[in-house]
Amino acid sequence: MDGGTGLTHRLRLYAAESLGLTMELLAHDDSALMQSIMVNNPADANGYLLYPDGAPRFRLLYTNGGDAGRHGRALGDTGRQRIRDFCARGGTYIGTCAGAYLAALSHQDSGVFPYFYHLWPGRVKATGITSSATGHFVPESSPLLRYYNFGGDYYIARVPHNGGCFANESLDFPPETEILLRYDTTGHRAHRKVSCWAWKGADTSGRIVLTGSHPEGYSYGERLQFMMGMIRYALDGQGAPRLKGILANGVPRVMNQPTGSDPAFVMIGDRQYHHFACDIPPGCETLTVYLIGADSTDFNLYLHPGDFAFRSVAEYADTNPGNIKLLRVNFPISGRWFVGVECATTVTASGDSFPVYSGRVDVLNGVPYQIVARWGPIGIAENRGTGQKQLLLTPNPFRTTFTVNVPENVSQVMIVDKSGRIRARAPENGLTFSSNLIKWQPDRAIEPGVYHILIRTNARTLRLRIVYLGR
């Protein structure tokens, strides 16, 4: 909830509370503080509204009433662009009074007002009504009726109004605009004009819902339902998720770029999802997806056929704590499978009038990870370090026991970590071998991670990369 410079510094939003939503708020007139939160700061190069790749970090931004011009000027060019990016990438927006002005192209009959956000490509006009109240007719086609019937009389009475606007239908009115309510202000120029309206520019962008009046201050009755309906309709218009890319068979995808780089390879932020897909041909016997993320960071991994993989719908999920994840599907159906990566580590938020973050603030600028998907016949794995493509590594990555068949007599085996330190030497530390079968069951002292198994045969020494996920 934006109640920054020039706007009402509201501390509660009853409609959000009634809907069970969590909320962070800015209720302070300090322009430097607002810039730090909305634009950038040392801990967050994108500002709190956006993730490192520019995607929306919140589902909805609500902007209060007040002085629209002062607020827009205080945000500056970069701050206003942050809000445009938030909505263009899927975040939704609600504005009441000044918040509605700010979303428009202009409040004038020509040109573009530079200090507005230009989220809705139409013009607004002042009602000329101050320190009063307005009635609102509810058209039978209004989407708000999906949520509430407003007493069944298609009318909302006595909504506070103080210099708000209406949507100008007579000039540059975008044809895709949805009319949610109309004013009942007999004797004023705003009578029967559009008092509440919505617009959504594309499937991947967020819905904009605006009103010139003030339903936000009520904790009961139809005025509360007015505001709740705006929120619900906005949230139902969130932008569709986007793919980061299509995973190639066995090719690692490294997500380690900072803010400002190609979004397809930028690091993941707190509680953010990254989405990928892989196209599985007919006849595959196994599909394996594994992820190695930044140390001391919790990741979740999801896999779902045919649609985006979120926690709520994914057919396969690994949500155990930790930064190393594995999902395996035997005999997957052919077609497109979706992979969802979630960074479960987040900041701790506090503060009464503006958000104060503590704890893992490093996740605001993103944390890196690597993801690999492999599919094909069971037991076939490629290890580029040896050039051997027919070694039976079962399984890799693994949690409890790893085995490998070597088509030559084995004379010595050891396990080393990434630094080259020996962690197991056969026949000790859970590592055993016969003439051509090697088995490793790591003990509790072995940490999850990437290891190499060094195998000496009569003819040569092999080096295989294995991933231990932990018990």
* Unreliable stretches: 379-389
Q: Strand order across the biggest sheet?
A: 3-4-11-10-9-6-7
Tally of domains: 3
* CATH topology (level 3) name of the largest domain: Rossmann fold
Arithmetic mean of pLDDT:
93
CATH architecture of the largest domain: 3-Layer(aba) Sandwich
- Main sheet makeup: 7 strands, mixed
Q: What is the radius of gyration computed over CA atoms, rounded to a whole number of angstroms?
A: 28 Å
Q: In terms of quaternary structure, what is this? A: single chain
Structural class: mainly beta
| C-alpha termini separation | 43 Å
Question: Which overall shape is indicated by the principal axes computed on the Cα atoms?
Answer: elongated
Beta-strand proportion? 25-35%
Number of strands: 30
| CATH homology superfamily of the largest domain | Class I glutamine amidotransferase (GATase) domain
State the share of residues found in helices, binned by percent: 10-25%
The helix count comes to 5
Q: Which CATH class of the largest domain applies here?
A: Alpha Beta
Highlighted features:
five-stranded mixed beta sheet, Jelly Rolls, Rossmann fold, 3 domains, seven-stranded mixed beta sheet, mainly beta, Immunoglobulin-like
Write the SSE topology.
Blueprint: E1 2-3, H1 14-18, E2 26-27, H2 31-38, E3 60-63, H3 68-88, E4 92-96, H4 98-103, E5 124-126, E6 132-137, E7 155-161, E8 165-167, E9 178-184, E10 194-199, E11 208-211, H5 221-235, E12 245-246, E13 253-255, E14 273-280, E15 286-293, E16 299-305, E17 316-318, E18 324-330, E19 335-343, E20 347-350, E21 356-359, E22 369-376, E23 392-394, E24 402-405, E25 410-417, E26 422-425, E27 431-433, E28 437-440, E29 449-457, E30 461-468
Parallel strand pairs: 1-2, 3-4, 4-11, 12-14
Antiparallel strand pairs: 5-8, 6-7, 6-9, 9-10, 10-11, 13-22, 14-19, 15-18, 15-22, 16-17, 16-19, 20-21, 23-24, 24-28, 25-26, 25-29, 27-28, 29-30
Helix pairs in contact: 2-3
